[in-house]
Structure formats: C-alpha cells, structure tokens
C-alpha cells in the first residue's frame, strides 16, 4: 500500500515550495506591459529586493536562472583574458569557475573539498601572491547547495582588505538569500547573485544581480559589455522595457510581489531566525539517528552548516532507497545527492538532501522528519530511534511559551 495521497511536499533545495499567495498572484491574464499596474509595480520590487539583500546598492533583474546570474555578474565586471579567483567548496563554485572559463576568463580555483568551508586564510595567501593584481574578482558561493556548507563571506572581505587587494568580492547567494543571514553592504560584497526559485519562493525563471558602486565602476571600465547582460540599463532604465532587456517576465513579477509582501510582513531577521530554528530541529533529529548505524551529516561543525539545505550520507544505495520510500509511500520528495559521486558510488546514491528554504514552517519540517524516521524503520536501515522527539524539543524550546498562568487561562 501507499500513504502518499494528500498534499505532497517537495523538500528539495530548489525549486522550493511556492506559497498559495504567490500562485494566486500569478493566476491572471496577460497584463499591459506599456502602462498601468505592472509598470507601476516594478520600482517597489527593486526597493524590496534591496531590503532582502541588505543593500543600498543597485540591482539588475534578468529572465534567467542562477546560471544566467553567474554569467551576468561576470559579463559586467571581467573581460576575456582577465583572471578570477574561485575558492570553491562542493559543486557550485566549480560551476561558476566553468562559466568564467567559457567566457575566456582564467579561473584560479582553490578547492576546499566537499565538507569544509572556504578558508579565508588561504584566499589571503593567493591574493598576496598576486602582487601584479591580475585577479579581478573573488567568486565565492555563500551556501553550496550540494554539500550544504556555508562559508564566511565577511572573512573574505577581511582577506581582501588585509592584503590591500583591489579585486571585487562576488557572492553567490542563490541558495542562501532569504534563508541564511546575509548582509551585502555590511559585509562589503561588491556583487551578489541570486535566483527566484529558492528563498524567494517564486518559480524558476528570474535572476537578480546586486552590485556596488565599485562594481559599477568596473563595468564602466570595460571596453565592451554584451547588450543583453549589461546591467546598467536594467538598474537605471530610461524606458520600462530596459528593466528586462525586452518584454517583462509579467507573471513572475506578480509572484515576486506577493513573495516580497510576505517577506516584508515577517521581517528578514525573523525569517533568518525561523530558518535557523528549523535547521537546528533537523540537525537534532539527524544527530540522534546517526548515533547508531550509517547516517551522517555531511558537515560536522554546525557553525559551517547552511540553514536552507542539509546534505546527508547514508551509504549506497540507501540514500536513493530512502528518497524513493518517502516519495512513494508518504508524499515527501527529498533532494538527490548532487555532486557527491564517489568511485564506488558513481551516481551518488548514498547521499540525499533536505531542502528547507523559503516557505517552510515547523509542521512541514517535523512531518518530513517523522516521515524519514518511518522510512528508516520500514527499510530496516539501522538508526537510533527518537530523532523526531529531539526535533520537537528544539521547536518547543524555541517558541516562546506564555509566561503566566493567567495568559494560559486566557487561551
Ligand atoms: C541553485 C543554485 C545555482 C544554480 O541555479 P540555477 O537556477 O539552477 O541555474 C547556483 N548556485 C547555487 C548556490 C545554487 O543553489
């Protein structure tokens, strides 16, 4: 039998769960793109995107996914023949480096493996060695979605400042924005890229590139910028169509408006807090399960773990078997082990991931964890029981209880 019928839950690390309000906002006929509601709505989107990114800088919007944002960031700041430094952890840093190479840019990659965050000390060493200042930008992924490692972006700013290196600091916040704390201006980030389909809770299809005045100067110094990727008219349009280099992504914009309304209403600090508590609940469950049997969290130190995604190892083929079980038997779809292949497990079937980004709350996460615990038991995978109990404890302690008996009675 299967117990999967009912509301399903896509618990993969992007695309994330779309709120009903976002879906409803998108369910409409084509709007006029020359005047009226849609045109009037866009300046408010720009304002609220900057609120989420904690910046007073600029933002350019693209009809693209995260890969498009990577290319856009490079197209505006680095010329073919230039060099970028890419401290990479997990999979996505390598992807950004490959994007640079495809544009004729030399990528100097520092590989920190699949479990450790970027080591700012080694980045500083590489910057110090570059006395001719050939490195034009440092490309760092804030949260690597394959490994669930979170790196310290502010430490990279310090590395650039301490070495007196003028390179731009670029951050990929595609997985982290609207989930993990990120402070573009306070952390001295020059360029930040993100997409619509993770913490922003909108379908895939829009990408955002935030940039500082210093990055704008780099753009102005380039001999040539490809017309479509050029961020200048998108950030400072004279005509409405220039925001999007053509027809606006009409329905995405309505969805984004609804999502940003939700974000503003909850408040970005509260959103970070919610993700932090839910992540701790997940880790608490995993720690108990891992006390006996093969399960392990990919990132040992909680300080280096993302609050948006958690990568786990169960050993081949049990990661895939567990995903199959939760999907077919209970309606919960877990993430695959991305970029985690090993010589004896080329497809990475020993790994799986929990996506917990964006529109997620306590009952979704607790339900997912209980489903996983049932799956482990049903499949006969050794684990210590009680993971769900540990997770409920984290949730119970985090939520403030009414302090006085009178308040309790009033309930
Ligand atoms: C999802 C993701 C990407 C790629 O985004 P696409 O929309 O799939 O192109 C890049 N970097 C990180 C950190 C991501 O999480």
UniProtKB/TrEMBL annotation:
<dbReference type="InterPro" id="IPR020578">
    <property type="entry name" value="Aminotrans_V_PyrdxlP_BS"/>
</dbReference>
<keyword id="KW-0808">Transferase</keyword>
<dbReference type="InterPro" id="IPR024169">
    <property type="entry name" value="SP_NH2Trfase/AEP_transaminase"/>
</dbReference>
<protein>
    <submittedName>
        <fullName>Aminotransferase class V-fold PLP-dependent enzyme</fullName>
    </submittedName>
</protein>
<dbReference type="InterPro" id="IPR000192">
    <property type="entry name" value="Aminotrans_V_dom"/>
</dbReference>
<feature type="domain" description="Aminotransferase class V">
    <location>
        <begin position="74"/>
        <end position="282"/>
    </location>
</feature>
<comment type="similarity">
    <text>Belongs to the class-V pyridoxal-phosphate-dependent aminotransferase family.</text>
</comment>
<dbReference type="Pfam" id="PF00266">
    <property type="entry name" value="Aminotran_5"/>
</dbReference>
<keyword id="KW-0032">Aminotransferase</keyword>
<keyword id="KW-0663">Pyridoxal phosphate</keyword>
<dbReference type="GO" id="GO:0008483">
    <property type="term" value="F:transaminase activity"/>
</dbReference>
């Amino acid at each position: 039998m299967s117990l999967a019928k009912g509301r399903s839950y896509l618990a993969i690390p992007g695309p994330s769960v779309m709120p009903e309000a976002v879906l409803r906002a998108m369910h409409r006929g084509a709007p006029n793109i020359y005047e009226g509601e849609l045109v009037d709505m866009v300046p408010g989107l720009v304002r609220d995107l900057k609120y989420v990114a904690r910046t007073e800088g600029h933002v350019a919007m693209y009809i693209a996914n995260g890969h498009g944002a990577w290319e856009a960031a490079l197209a505006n700041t680095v010329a073919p023949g230039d060099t970028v430094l890419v401290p990479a952890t997990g999979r996505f840093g390598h992807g950004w480096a490959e994007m640079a190479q495809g544009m004729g840019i030399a990528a100097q990659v520092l590989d920190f493996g699949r479990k450790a965050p970027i080591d700012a000390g080694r980045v500083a060493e590489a910057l110090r060695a570059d006395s001719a200042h050939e490195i034009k930008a440092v490309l760092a992924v804030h949260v690597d979605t394959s490994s669930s490692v979170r790196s310290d972006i502010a430490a990279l700013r310090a590395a650039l400042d301490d070495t007196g290196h003028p390179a731009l600091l670029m951050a990929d916040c595609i997985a982290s924005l609207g989930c993990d704390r990120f402070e573009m201006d306070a952390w001295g980030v020059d360029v930040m890229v993100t997409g619509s389909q993770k913490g922003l809770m909108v379908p895939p299809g829009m990408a955002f590139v935030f940039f500082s005045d210093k990055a704008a100067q780099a753009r102005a110094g380039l001999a040539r910028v490809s017309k479509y990727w050029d961020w200048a008219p998108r950030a400072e349009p004279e005509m409405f169509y220039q925001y999007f280099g053509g027809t606006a992504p009409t329905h995405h914009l309505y969805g984004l408006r609804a999502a940003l309304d939700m974000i503003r209403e909850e408040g970005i600090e509260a959103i970070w807090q919610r993700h932090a508590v839910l992540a701790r609940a997940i880790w608490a469950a995993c720690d108990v399960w891992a006390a006996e049997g093969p399960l392990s969290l990919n990132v040992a130190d909680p300080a280096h773990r993302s609050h948006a995604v958690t990568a786990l190892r169960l050993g081949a083929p049990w990661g895939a078997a567990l995903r199959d079980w939760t999907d077919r038997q209970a309606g919960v779809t877990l993430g695959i082990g991305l970029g985690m292949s090993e010589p004896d497990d080329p497809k990475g079937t020993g790994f799986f991931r929990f996506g917990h980004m964006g529109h997620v709350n306590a009952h979704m996460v607790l339900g997912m964890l209980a489903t996983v615990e049932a799956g482990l038991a049903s499949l006969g995978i050794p684990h210590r029981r009680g993971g769900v109990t540990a997770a409920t404890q984290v949730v119970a302690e985090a939520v403030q209880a009414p302090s006085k008996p009178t308040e309790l009675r009033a309930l």
